[in-house]
Specification:
Urease, subunit C, domain 1, 18% strand, 15 strands, 2 domains, 39% helix, TIM Barrel
Length: 411
């Protein structure tokens, strides 16, 4: 977990074409000489870094952050379901959607995989905000039709029709917006609904799937009781054609050996949500075992059980979780999990996550002077030491600007 290397340039520059893609990265003088007629945006002595990529977060839970913690299943009943019920309201959805993306941008996040509410209208508003504000996002309407409050329960026919309309309108729009089939998790979906979602995925093979998996021990026991004929939690999703290289599974704290094999054979991805796992007391994520099994992992904030939009703080907690298990992570590997590793988790490593030519120019400009403690110790140390200072102390104060497709987005 320490093999990833940093590549840095002092006085570096990025050349971006008219389509928002990277042409070249290198020393600033070299880039200016090679592109003498280019428009120049001078970021001074700030750091230019790849934009953060959040692989799992919940749009309607934004205002739940800081609610008094319970364990997962109680958290859903006490806070999540009542909060999400409020999003059957177009104006509220529109207002919160813009706030949500602005919060992502303020924290240097350029791409996010987002769970919307169970309502099609609020999901349309979320996509509309992403389009108008210039965000890159994977979004899905949440499916759940049993063991949840009645106001969430719609017929499978209506649910699938609404989802098809969303896919048709929004999936792969401008190579920036994508759709994800989004069952909340297996125990709140009937077998009929899971079957129809699998059929929908087969009909639209380019769409993503995102759901939750093995987050909490009581959850796992509940699932086992509801699906006694399945070999494991993960095998339920396999049975319904919901695993694959565009499947993003949130949490995965307690996988069995059988499930490790299934993850490998289907090339499904795992989203690690450290602040949420600690806040709800769910457990310590076994990152080392995932790496040993060659399973792709990306970091995520998991708003609103997650306690911060900042992937700096997410890296900070990820480091501590591994340290508790005797598996310290290097600063470079932590940054990888929030950038290129997260891009791999979202099947986008050829498009975003680092500064190779041909990728989209998604980046953040970091001004470490905005943080009093960091500015006292920056500059005269190695890049790795400076990066670790950002990880352990950084937050949204560091972000001077955020850029997607080579364009500055509003903060």
């Amino acid at each position: 977990m320490n093999s990833t290397q940093l590549r840095t340039y002092k006085q570096g520059a990025i050349a971006v074409d008219s389509h928002g893609k990277i042409i070249k990265v290198g020393p600033g003088d070299f880039i200016k000489e090679k592109f003498p007629h280019a428009k120049i945006n001078d970021c001074g002595q700030n750091l230019i870094m790849p934009g953060f990529i959040d692989t799992h977060t919940h749009f309607p839970q934004m205002d739940m952050i800081g609610s008094y913690g319970k364990e997962l299943l109680d958290w859903l009943e006490t806070y999540t379901y009542p909060e999400e019920a409020q999003f059957n309201d177009q104006l509220k959805s529109r207002r919160v959607a813009r706030r949500f993306f602005n919060e992502l941008f303020q924290n240097g996040t350029t791409t996010a995989a987002i769970y919307s509410s169970p309502y099609a209208l609020s999901t349309h508003e979320l996509f509309s905000a992403a389009k108008s504000l210039g965000a890159r996002a994977i979004i899905g309407k949440v499916h759940m039709n049993c063991r949840v409050p009645e106001n969430f329960q719609v017929s499978c026919k209506v649910d699938i029709e609404e989802t098809e309309q969303l896919i048709t309108e929004w999936h792969n729009l401008e190579d920036r917006l994508h759709y994800a089939i989004t069952p909340r998790f297996a125990p709140v979906c009937t077998e009929e609904l899971l079957e129809l979602l699998g059929q929908l995925r087969a009909k639209y093979p380019g769409v993503y799937v995102q759901t939750h998996f093995a987050e909490n021990q009581k959850e796992i026991e509940w699932v086992a009781g509801l699906f006694p004929n399945d070999k494991s939690y993960l095998s339920i999703y396999e049975r319904y054609n919901l695993l694959g290289d565009k499947t993003i599974l949130g949490h995965g704290i307690y996988p069995t050996e059988l499930e490790f094999e299934l993850l490998k054979s289907t090339n499904s991805k795992i989203s690690h949500c450290p602040t949420s796992n600690l806040f709800l007391g769910s457990g310590l994520f076994p990152l080392k075992k995932y790496i040993q099994n060659n399973i792709t992992v990306g970091l995520a904030t998991d708003i609103g059980a997650g306690t911060s939009f900042s992937l700096w703080q997410t890296m900070n907690e990820a480091y501590k979780i591994q340290k508790l298990q005797g598996n310290p992570i290097s600063p470079a590997y932590l940054l990888y999990l929030a950038t290129l590793g997260a891009a791999e988790t979202l099947a986008m490593k050829d498009k975003i996550g680092s500064f190779e030519p041909g990728k989209y120019a998604d980046f953040q400009v970091i001004n470490w002077r905005n943080h009093r403690l960091i500015r006292e110790k920056f500059d005269d140390r190695s890049p790795e030491e400076n990066l670790f200072a950002l990880i352990t102390m950084g937050d949204d104060r560091l972000v001077d600007s955020t850029w997607i497709n080579g364009k500055k987005v509003s903060l």
